[in-house]
Write a sequence for this structure.
């Protein structure tokens, strides 16, 4: 007898079109296409179509994040 464990399918990442990625970034489609062409963002080829995983887009955003400096207290 085989014990069945409840396995959930792996959570799939949503794939965005270039247009959807540009909307999410608030940029032009041309900018996102340039990121893909220069391989500055990870992407997936689905046939001849380019798709960008939401986690890759989030990683790109996080990599460009610049945190604010704290002011030094006068001492």
């Amino acid at each position: 007898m085989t014990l069945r464990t409840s396995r959930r399918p792996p959570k799939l990442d949503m794939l965005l079109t270039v247009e959807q990625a540009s909307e999410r970034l608030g940029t032009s489609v041309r900018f996102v296409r340039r990121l893909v062409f220069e391989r500055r963002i990870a992407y997936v080829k689905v046939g001849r179509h380019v798709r960008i995983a939401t986690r890759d887009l989030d990683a790109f955003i996080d990599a460009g994040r610049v945190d604010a400096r704290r002011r030094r207290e006068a001492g």
In short: Residues 15-62 form one domain. The longest strand covers residues 49-53.
